[in-house]
Amino acid sequence: MINKVILIGNLGRDPEIRTLESGTKVGKFSVATNENYRDKNGEWQTLTEWHNIVVWRGVAERAERELKKGSMVYIEGKLTHRTWQDKDGIERYTTEVVANLLRLLDRRESSGRTFGNDFPGIQDEVKASNPAIADKVDSSSTQSTQSAQETPPDDDDLPF
Fold it and tell me: How far apart are the C-alpha atoms of 8 and 77, rounded to whole Å?
């Protein structure tokens, strides 16, 4: 079974990061995604959906350092549901995305990076799951990317 969520959107507020008694960091923020469509009168409409995001440990530290209200982000995680009772004894429900990978997509003029380079690759997944081998993946992925860029594509292999 799979529980995977991928979002690209903008932060609705600065991340709220706190440190638990154990020293573990946890953060919360909201992300807005937009869907554009034409209504029955032919007018363009925008439907905005808000998503509650929760980040833990290293991802929370990164969110605290890099994210701010309005930032465009790529998020991968899982969908979770929680219930609790409020101060009046009413049972409340919430749905959240617990993110295990986030990537800032805003352009940075000083870095010279392009939008496409900001999407996560295999090295990001390895870093999220096993930071100990991340350096090995970084160097091998850089070498394969360089060799792929040096070799022009063969037009004869097109499937159509």
Answer: 12
